[in-house]
Write a structure and sequence with these properties.
The complex is a heterodimer of chains A (176) and B (653). Chain A has 176 residues and is mainly alpha-helical. Chain A contains six helices and no strands. In chain A, 66% of the residues lie in helices and 0% in strands. In chain A, helix 2 crosses helix 3. The two termini of chain A are 38 Å apart. The relative contact order of chain A is 0.06. Chain B starts with a helix and ends with a helix. The radius of gyration of chain B is 27 Å and the shape is globular. In chain B, the strands form two sheets. Chain B has a five-stranded antiparallel β-sheet, with no helix packed on it. In chain B, strands 1-9-8-7 form a four-stranded antiparallel β-sheet, covered by helices on one side. In chain B, strand 4 and strand 5 form a beta hairpin. Helices cover 63% and strands 11% of the residues of chain B. Chain B is an alpha+beta fold and 653 residues long. The chains are: A mainly alpha (176), B alpha+beta (653). The interface between A and B is large, with 76 and 77 residues.
Chain lengths: 176, 653
């Protein structure tokens, strides 16, 4: 019962954190055309210079694309319409991140599951480690580490002397 | 001279093959003599590789264009100091560099291996020799830097202008050294696994090595960011480019390792886990070198692409099968004592940190390989760049900073919610205060003010520990400075770690500030025209043109007035290299603790006007400050403790 209660608080904290974070990524309104254009620049890859966005690239084509972005935004086009236009022109790999539909959805699902599954793995591991501990009697637990090392040292010493063909004593580990 | 280099390369390959085969045969026939003689190659290989290296350097300095590598990567006009950079600007040279670093590290590791690890030394050495033999064989037979051309060109191709930057003197060599350096702790762990004696003996040696490599990689990454920031001309420092990612992944896993190895050191837990972690780190480091040396992922950084990819992929697969095969065969020896006293303990916090770091590394890897996955499964290529990583890794890093704040406040073994609540009270209050202050200052983007709140939380936790410790030691009659030094000296891994944490807080300040509150403006200015960006008034004065042997330089002078009417002159440098048909830029940067004013000239128009990109990047200075802070922390954590102090402080139970 006590352990269950111990779990409640981290779960609350973690849920709170995750939801706050999720909220952080909702887009906000009231941006200028230039601010919206700069955000779009960072989402479009320059087709002739792989892995550089049109924001980063200094080639002529990137400059032309930037101009198109600004013209269309001024003309009242939405972000999605502009992205769609470039996709129809250059293909899907003009987008700096794959669109979240079809097969490409998998990249986003894996990304989204990273934090929840990390938390799940953590809780399961901790619980199994706790169970292993409580299964041992508390008195033997204290001695276990030391006797382990002791046994190892005896064995190691034996093998080393066998290996060297000498009976010399070796410096012991500083772990004891 | 080049012949000597070529011959000594063959000698190194022969020696290292003998090192590998001799160690195995020696063990097989139980001949200590063979094993010892194999071990001696560890000291000979660095010498012969040093000769190869020197002869390639001399070939560069003498403009020996008979050598294909020299002709491809330098020319007569190149400043001789860039020989150092040209040396590793292609596959062949960087392989030679990697091999030399590995041979040096192997010699050092063999020389300084503690007595308690004597029994695993032959295995560790055999594995290191195996890795070195691979690199030397690839170099000798597939990418030999001493290959000659059938004719002697009058001049070479020249160095890539983007590489002629001070950052390039240290960024690639540190990254490559860091990546190959992971081989050492990996080989120690594997050697131990092969012998079947799973002990804690390797912990201290493995910790020292992995800390050194971890810091080397960190500084390499930071220098790379600095290089990108000052030279690439888009005002950023990190683009989640595949090459950057593959260097970041092993660093993340090593970060997990240097934490969890402390748990083994202090509490004897995580024995198996640590071996798994170092295996993953090594695999990712190999993957990094594979992508670097012409893998299938396109990247802006792949100055050196070649058909070596498949050979590296084969070696990667082999090493995976080898390491996890040994792991499987030894699984019965690996039954650890998985005793955890409490869910709320430092051990548990370290585990959380480990899993989170692995999650970040995994998501990053997933992003790097997804274009290939997509090509295989849906037949189309997709691009995975910054928008993906920012969205997915952003929240993970956020939680990581949170753990960095809470973890150190939880004691080893056991804690209670009551005592934790008491411990987080002050940092929590300071963090809340900081958030309120930030909101009042107009920092209203949720991710930004929440992250800054967390930074305040982490820093307060650390500073309070220091103040408390210093005051209690001061009570014993020391002065403040002495008490503080004594405190840090008493538990170096811990207080060194705290400094590294502060370094990461400093890094976070810069990253968050510039990504959420950076101002960017692209302008075209005629002479005498000015533009206002944020609080700065920027006037374009004139451009001076300088004709150099290999380039034409444009020095664009600007007069900047800030809101307090202070004037400074700035110069945004731009050059055109006709041989390579490339332009290169150097940003003019005025850096203060508060913000950077960053001006780069992006284009010179035909009508005499000049295009500039102007950025105001808040708190960037703190990003670079993280570097020296991190080095300091690592050095303190590494500083050897006397054996007496060691046993006293490490087993407080």
């Amino acid at each position: 019962m006590l352990r269950l209660r111990n779990l409640v608080q981290p779960i609350i904290v973690i849920t709170l954190l995750t939801s706050i974070l999720a909220g952080c990524f909702s887009s906000s309104n009231g941006l200028t055309i230039e601010e919206r254009a700069q955000a779009l620049d960072k989402q479009l890859i320059c087709p002739i210079c792989p892995t550089e966005t049109i924001d980063q690239s200094q080639v002529q084509l990137a400059k032309q694309m930037k101009n198109i972005v600004r013209e269309r935004l001024t003309g009242g086009a939405s972000e999605q319409e502009i992205l769609d236009f470039f996709v129809s022109r250059y293909g899907e790999d003009v987008l700096a991140a794959p669109p979240a539909h079809g097969f490409n959805l998998t990249i986003w699902i894996v990304g989204a599951l990273a934090l929840p599954s990390a938390i799940l793995i953590l809780i399961l591991t901790l619980r199994s480690m706790r169970r292993a501990t409580t299964a041992q009697s508390p008195s033997s637990k204290e001695n276990l580490d030391i006797s382990d090392i002791g046994q190892y040292l005896i064995q190691a010493d034996k093998e080393i002397s066998e290996f060297l063909g000498t009976g010399s004593k070796h410096e012991q580990s500083d772990e004891v | 001279m080049a012949e000597i280099g070529s011959i000594s390369l063959y000698i190194a390959l022969t020696l290292s093959s003998y090192g590998l085969i001799g160690s195995i045969l020696g063990k097989f026939f139980l001949s200590y003599q063979i094993q010892r003689s194999a071990l001696r190659t560890a000291y000979l290989i660095p010498i012969s590789l040093l000769i190869s290296t020197l002869s390639l350097v001399i070939a560069f300095l003498n403009h020996d264009f008979r050598l294909e590598y020299v002709a491809d990567h330098s020319n007569l006009a190149m400043n001789p100091i860039y020989t150092w950079v040209a040396f590793y600007s292609g596959n062949e040279g960087s392989l030679l560099y990697i091999a030399m670093v590995l041979s040096l590290l192997t010699a050092i590791a063999v020389k300084f291996m503690p007595k308690s690890l004597e029994s695993i030394k032959p295995y560790t050495f055999a594995i290191l020799s195996g890795i070195l033999t691979f690199f030397l064989a690839v170099m000798t037979f597939m990418a030999n830097p001493f290959d000659t051309l059938p004719f002697i060109p009058a001049d070479g191709q020249g160095i890539n202008p983007l590489l002629t930057h001070p950052g390039m003197f240290f960024h690639p060599p540190m990254l490559m050294a860091g990546l190959i350096g992971v081989s050492v702790p990996f080989s120690i762990a594997m050697g131990m696994l092969i012998t079947g004696h799973i002990s804690n003996n390797w912990v201290e040696f493995g910790r020292v090595w992995s800390l050194l490599i971890w810091a080397t990689l960190a500084i390499g990454l930071l220098l790379g960011s600095w290089w990108a920031y000052t030279i690439l001309g888009w005002g950023g420092y990190w683009a989640w480019d595949p090459i950057e990612n593959v260097a970041l992944m092993p660093w993340l896993v090593l970060t997990a390792f240097i934490h969890s190895i402390m748990v083994q050191k202090r509490r004897g837990l995580f024995k198996v886990w640590n071996i798994v972690l170092i295996n993953i780190a090594f695999t990712l480091a190999l993957f990094g070198m594979f992508i670097n040396r012409g893998g299938p992922v396109v990247s802006v950084h792949s100055f050196a692409s070649s058909a070596l990819g498949w050979v590296f992929l084969g070696f990667l697969a082999f090493s995976l099968v080898f390491s996890f095969g040994v792991f499987y065969l030894r699984r019965t020896n690996l039954k650890g004592t998985a005793s955890l006293d409490s869910m709320l303990s430092r051990e548990a916090a370290f585990l959380a940190n480990n899993i989170l770091l692995l999650a970040i590394a995994f998501v990053t890897l997933w992003g790097v390989v997804f274009p290939l996955v997509s090509e295989v499964f849906q037949g189309t290529t997709v691009t995975v760049a910054a928008p993906f990583y920012n969205k997915v890794n952003g929240p993970l890093f956020f939680v990581l900073i949170f753990l960095m704040g809470v973890g150190p406040l939880i004691p080893w073994r056991n804690s209670s919610w009551g005592s934790l609540r008491k411990a987080i009270q002050l940092p929590g209050l300071v963090a809340t205060g900081a958030i309120i202050l930030l909101l009042l200052m107009g920092i209203t983007k949720p991710f930004a003010f929440l992250s800054y709140g967390l930074c305040a939380f982490v820093a307060t936790g650390i500073l309070r520990e220091w103040i408390k410790g210093t005051l209690s030691l001061k009570g014993k009659g020391h002065n403040y400075a002495f008490a503080f030094v004594k405190l840090v000296a008493a538990n170096r891994p811990r207080y060194g770690g705290y400094i590294a944490h502060l370094a990461l807080v400093s890094l976070a300040l810069g990253v968050i500030g510039s990504s959420f509150y950076g101002i960017q403006k692209d302008v075209i200015l005629a002479k005498g025209e000015s533009v206002k960006v944020d609080t700065y008034n920027i006037e374009y004065i004139e451009t001076k043109v300088l004709i150099k042997a290999d380039r034409t330089e444009f020095l664009n002078y600007l007069n900047v007035t800030d809101d307090r009417n202070r004037n400074i002159e700035m110069m945004a440098w731009r050059a055109f290299y006709p041989d390579q048909n490339m332009a290169a830029t150097r940003a003019a940067i005025k850096s203060t603790l508060i913000e950077d004013l960053y001006i780069v000239s992006t284009e010179a128009l035909a009508d005499g006007r000049v295009a500039f990109r102007i950025l105001v990047n808040p708190l960037i200075w703190w990003m670079w400050f993280a570097g020296p802070l991190l080095v300091t922390g690592t050095l303190i954590a590494l500083w050897p403790q006397s054996t007496v102090a060691f046993s006293k402080s490490d087993y407080p139970m």
